[in-house]
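I am writing to request your help with a piece of structural work I have in hand. Here, with my thanks, is the record as I have it:
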Amino acid sequence: HDHALMVALAICSLVLYLLTLMLAEKLSSNTVDAQEVELIWTILPAIVLILLALPSLQILYMMDEIDEPDLTLKAIGHQWYWAYEYTDFKDLTFDSYMIPTTELPSGHFRLLEVDHRIVIPMESPIRIIITANDVLHSWAVPSLGVKTDAIPGRLNQTSFITTRPGVFYGQCSEICGANHSYMPIVVESTPLTHFEHWSTLLSS
């Protein structure tokens, strides 16, 4: 963003200078017909666009790759709930349904709370593989900066790291059917010791 703003500032300054120059001085016929000037103002914008694109492409590439994640999680979209598999564990799978309003405990968020939360260790690179079993879904948790489509027959991958303990809420953000808005996602970030205790209890 700062890089793009500096480039925009330089371009605006140059254009303002040239406009002022054109208003203050009369252009000669040599300047009007100069093919060298036309060549420069054709090639220069292309170079500027390349300089703007290269840092963005580098950041996109770095964001998409995780060489050695600490935990791999698979999310499968169904109509209308999520199923999760902790692929690093032998038998750690569960379905996650929204808690109906009539059964919601006091103090919990309506339409956002689920019966089984995703529990992850904080400060650990998490890779999540996302797919769907029936129609298009989208696994989105805005507070974690994650939004990836779940497509039947295809595996999409994304990654994130939580830097603090907490509970992060999201929803399916694809119009997948009548109960599209009833597919909440709850991610609970805990210290590693708490995660190990939770995974042991759920596996046993």
Summary: The CA atoms of residues 29 and 35 lie 12 Å apart.
